[in-house]
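Board work, copied verbatim: N-acetyltransferase
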Amino acid sequence: MIQLVPIASVPAAAIDHLLDLAFGTDRHGRTAYKLREGTDPVPELSFAAVEDGTLVGSIQCWPVELTEADGTRTPLILVGPVAVRPDRQRDGIGRLLMHKALAAADAADAAPMMLIGDAIYYDRFFGFSARHTSGWTLPGPVDRDRLLARLRPGQAIPEQASLGPSRVPALAPAIRR
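↓ predict structure ↓
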């Protein structure tokens, strides 16, 4: 039986090993890593999937923000990486982790969430879309169709802004400052 536990309860080395297995050891050069550079994952939204004492998956969420040309900043939460051991992929573990993180974010009235991933999958199962992200600039290359955001009713985000790391608490409601 899979248990979802706070990611802090799993050794960091085990998470790093899982990420290497799922995404390769060259993963650190990707744009998503530049977006979260110098920040720590949001503990209330980051989980590990453990089965019989073995780590089989993880999800991490990170504080990021959009900065408009006039300096106005809007907090967001970057979802990912969502990692599942290669021999356990297609067992629904990633989906279970996503539902857990999204439910925790919704319960906390957290800032809007964004990720870089497969648009069809993340829209169909979780409500992420590229509808609001085409005018964002990032600190590295990105396939525009894979740059996705998820807004709850009443949330808004700028459509023209620069995306980067944030030092502001990620669980603050989505207010512009």
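The chain has one domain: 2-165.
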